[in-house]
């Protein structure tokens, strides 16, 4: 793992155990299909990790804060997390998701069934970017298609997408207003508040508490609606001001034209 004579400090970017290099170091063995078959293993953790969201952050974007192999498996005593430990490993980073999960019904049900908690829905090494669309399929892997748990997943997705669409509409309207230009900085702060509420929804879904999801999405949706209403009002007021100004200049020019014509007639009569 460390090399022989060329051993470098772990924080040296050239080191084989520098965080950004750890997956390839572990992959020298765990990415060797022939070697792994000797241990009865057929998967390729390096390929799966590289294709997942963690590998993309670490190995493509070079984000040293992203987890590498040792974050989950340990270093010198490396071992696969047991079924009862997966949530604790993931919970080191995903604190809010784990806290909500522990409040929900899945915790006891999955432990009773001997299922790894986080990995059952998110996989292990090939963890893909989380999106609310996964509720269309992930729930039905364990539950019947028309069962209450699957329906709950659909309800949570509907609440989330409704709030997201409202925020997107508000954002597009703000862009139009800024191009006028109208002052939008105060609304930008409120839009970020709505987006923050929406970010909180995904971890909250792990508790399977529809009321909690509804509360968070309602807050985000309400802020988006308020912004839309107020920005629409500003755009309408500007339109009427421009119309009023146009009418004012029309009558002013008309009055001047009439005065000029009358003056010309008066001058002609005197002559």
Q: Could you walk me through the main structural features you see in this protein, from its secondary elements to its overall organization?
A:
It is a single chain. With 271 residues, the protein is an all-alpha fold. It has twelve helices and no strands. It has helices spanning 22-30, 33-37, 45-51, 53-60, 69-73, 86-91, 95-103, 106-113, 117-122, 148-178, 185-204, 210-270. Helix 10 packs antiparallel against helix 11. The protein is elongated. The protein starts with 21 loop residues before the first helix and ends with a helix. The mean pLDDT is 89.
Helix content: 55-70%
Number of helices: 12
Average pLDDT taken over every residue: 89
Class computed from helices, strands and strand pairing: mainly alpha
- How large is the radius of gyration? 31 Å
Regions with little confidence, pLDDT below 50 for 5+ residues: none
Span between termini: 111 Å
């Amino acid at each position: 793992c460390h090399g022989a004579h060329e051993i470098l400090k772990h924080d040296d970017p050239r080191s084989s155990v520098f965080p950004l290099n750890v997956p390839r170091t572990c992959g020298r063995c765990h990415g060797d299909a022939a070697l792994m078959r000797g241990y009865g293993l057929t998967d390729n953790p390096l390929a799966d990790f590289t294709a997942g969201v963690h590998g993309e952050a670490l190995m493509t974007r070079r984000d040293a804060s992203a987890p590498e192999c040792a974050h989950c498996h340990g270093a010198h005593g490396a071992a696969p997390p047991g079924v009862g430990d997966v949530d604790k490993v993931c919970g080191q980073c995903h604190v809010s998701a784990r806290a909500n999960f522990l409040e929900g019904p899945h915790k006891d049900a999955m432990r009773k069934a001997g299922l790894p908690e986080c990995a059952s829905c998110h996989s292990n090494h090939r963890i893909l970017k989380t999106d609310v669309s996964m509720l269309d399929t992930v729930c039905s892997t364990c539950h019947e298609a028309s069962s209450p748990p699957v329906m709950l997943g659909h309800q949570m997705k509907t609440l989330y997408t409704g709030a997201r669409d409202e925020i997107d509409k508000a954002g597009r309207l703000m862009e139009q207003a800024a191009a006028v230009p109208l002052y939008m900085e105060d609304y930008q702060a409120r839009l970020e508040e709505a987006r923050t509420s929406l970010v909180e929804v995904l971890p909250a879904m792990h508790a399977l508490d529809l009321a909690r999801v509804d509360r968070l999405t309602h807050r985000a949706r309400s802020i988006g609606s308020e912004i839309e209403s107020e920005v629409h009002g500003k755009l309408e007021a500007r339109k009427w001001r421009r119309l009023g100004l146009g009418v004012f200049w029309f009558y002013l020019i008309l009055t001047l034209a009439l005065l000029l014509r009358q003056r010309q007639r008066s001058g002609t009569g005197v002559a």
